[in-house]
Amino acid sequence: MLIIVGSRREGNSWNLANEIKKELDKERIHNEIITPGNQKIHLCTGCMDCDKNGVCDFTDDMKNNIEKINNNEVIMIITPVRWNILSGDLKIFMDRLNPLYSTKGLNKKKLIAVAIGAQGKEKYGTESAINSLASFAESAGMEIILTKEFNHCLNSKDILQNETEINEFIQNIKTCIAQ
Ligand SMILES: Cc1cc2nc3c(=O)[nH]c(=O)nc-3n(C[C@H](O)[C@H](O)[C@H](O)COP(=O)(O)O)c2cc1C
Predict the structure, then answer these.
(1) Which of 8, 65, 101, 155 has a C-alpha 20 to 30 A away from that of 91?
(2) Helix (H/G/I), strand (E/B), else coil: 163
(3) Structural contact between residues 156 and 10, judged by C-beta atoms closer than 8 angstroms
(4) Is the pTM of this model over 0.85?
């Protein structure tokens, strides 16, 4: 499983990703974490060359990222809620996945979508961030196999207070990826 962390700080998304990694490693379930925001990734110019040949003109960290996506059947995206939607780092990353649109490289990949926000569920919370990930998945032809929302997480380690919820989520991940 490839875990994509949508926040560049060592915050809630990063901490959750590492809790998941620790547990999957114990059972030797392949997983790796990337944080696109901390990588060298050019902004998509919209030239559309990749629609013709499935290759981007830029040479940067997306080459490696696309290779990792090709090599993993299950992709987890963890987004912090930013203005009620996914993070900008993730949007930049997604735009640069356009070479996979013409090659149908994301088709049938399994997506686990996670959103973490400071607000409660009711308003400007995690639901719309999950919806933005779901819209991406739909247009990419991916199948969402699991979603999870964590609320009331503002400071970088707040999420670690939800130990039971995290453990339950990890169990659900294991069940989903075993199928
Ligand atoms: C620019 C910005 C916009 C934000 N907008 C929202 C929001 O609309 N709803 C929400 O619940 N939290 C919002 N937050 C709070 C973050 O989602 C929250 O602190 C989250 O835990 C950050 O994840 P991280 O620790 O992985 O960076 C926002 C944070 C920033 C920096």
Answers:
(1) 155
(2) helix
(3) yes
(4) yes
| pLDDT confidence of residue 22 | 98
Q: Which of 170, 11, 152, 174 is nearest to 89 (CA)?
A: 11
Residue 12 makes CB contacts below 8 A (sequence gap 6+) with 80, 116, 150, 153, 156, 157, 158, 159
DSSP codes joined into one string, 112-124: EEEEE-SS-SSSS
- What CATH class does 2-173 carry? alpha beta
Q: What's the gap in Å between 85 CA and the centre of ligand 1?
A: 10
How far, in Å, from the CA of 174 to the mean position of ligand 1? 27
CA of 108 to the centre of ligand 1 (A): 30
pLDDT over 70 for what percent of the chain? 100
Which residue numbers in the chain have pLDDT < 70?
none
Q: Which atom of ligand 1 is nearest to the CA of 150?
A: 21
The domains of the chain are located at 2-173
The whole-number pLDDT of residue 124 equals 84
Q: Specify the 3-state DSSP secondary structure of 38.
A: helix
